[in-house]
Design a protein that fits this description.
By secondary structure, the protein is mostly helical. It has 17 helices and two strands. It has one domain: Farnesyl Diphosphate Synthase (Orthogonal Bundle). The protein is globular and about 60 Å long. About 0% of the residues have low confidence.
Length: about 325
């Protein structure tokens, strides 16, 4: 019975090793800087969550093709990695997954250009599959991800941001690529539309749960465990669900103080301590995690039309994993 991430990685060890080889082999460049930056960020400790979702979705739908699942898994990872490179430039990040970000080592220009290369390479490999539906999904996904970045930029330091606007950004920045990874598994398997839609629904809810949980970790994570810098989103003026709940529940004087913290050019240790104390007082991190748990449950429910199988068990376990990462 597959119940944990460790179970999944053990069950699909050979598949994911093949996926890893395909990802690195697909870089296809003799430009040293591209290979250096790409290899550095691709080797930064990620769990290949999106390629794994694609692989499991294809297996769930009985995929019996050659190796398109590995090609698309690599495409999805390239798109994700490109977005990380661009995000770190936009955020002026110094750390990614517990070590120096690529832009802090090679500079912003190199990070942007290598990110562009990875986007282009992803579409190059997608086109070579000669499947218009695959390309439709990939083009719609990358467009939505770009929109999400702009939407988030528009909401920087907006203390009055709504929960609906936040969820739209979550969908665009995180949900659409996870949804695509799952949907594409059904597409290459030539699964019926009912199964494709079920996997897309699973992916969307999973993506929302994943990002909301990630946003709570900004206020509750153990940096040694997850490589996250506490208060990073707050320092960058990003308004996420715990902060939205705080602005909704705080007393007027507390709201005014939080507006000053959010609008400040730099966040101090006292600002962070004050924010964390208010979040504990009003239970906002807990309640945001409860939302993530509900979305995880909805993701699992979307798989109810599939019969039991190792792939289904693995996808159910991943839905639990995304909301348990703080433990």
């Amino acid at each position: 019975m597959i119940t944990t991430l460790q179970d999944i990685l053990k069950e699909y060890k050979s598949d994911m090793e093949r996926m890893e080889s395909r990802i690195h082999d697909s870089l296809g460049t003799d430009v040293a800087l591209i290979r250096q930056v790409s290899t550095y960020i691709l080797g930064a400790g990620g769990k290949r969550f999106r390629p794994l979702l694609h692989l499991l979705s294809a297996r769930l739908c009985g995929y019996h093709g050659h190796d398109d699942e590995y090609t698309i898994g690599g495409v999805v990872e390239f798109i994700h990695t490109a977005s990380l490179l661009h995000d770190d430039v936009i955020d002026e990040a110094k750390v990614r997954r517990g070590r120096s970000s690529a832009n802090s080592i090679w500079g912003n220009q190199a990070s942007i250009l290598v990110g562009d290369y990875l986007y282009s390479k992803a579409l190059y490999h997608g086109v070579r599959l000669h499947n218009q539906r695959v390309m439709d999904v990939l083009s719609e996904t990358t467009t939505a991800m770009s929109e999400g970045e702009v939407l988030q930029l528009m909401q920087i330091q907006n203390a009055d941001m709504s929960e609906a606007d936040y969820l739209r950004i979550v969908d665009c920045k995180t949900g659409v690529l996870i949804t695509a990874a799952c949907r594409l598994g059904a597409i290459i398997s030539k699964a019926p539309l009912s199964q494709e839609d079920a996997l897309a629904a699973y992916g969307r809810k999973l993506g929302q749960a994943f990002q909301i949980t990630d946003d709570t970790l900004d206020y509750a994570a153990d940096a040694n465990e997850l490589g996250k810098v506490l208060g990073k989103d707050l320092a960058e003026g990003k308004v996420t669900l715990p902060l939205i709940y705080l602005m909704r529940r705080a007393e007027p004087a507390e709201q005014d103080a939080m507006r000053r913290v959010l609008a400040a050019d730099e966040m101090t240790d006292d600002d962070l301590a004050f924010t964390l104390s208010l979040m504990r007082k009003h239970g906002t991190v807990r309640d945001a995690l409860n939302v993530a748990q509900s979305l995880s449950d909805e993701a699992k429910a979307a798989l109810s039309l599939f019969p039991d199988s190792p792939a289904r068990q693995a996808l159910l376990a991943l839905a639990d994993y995304v909301v348990q990462r703080e433990k």
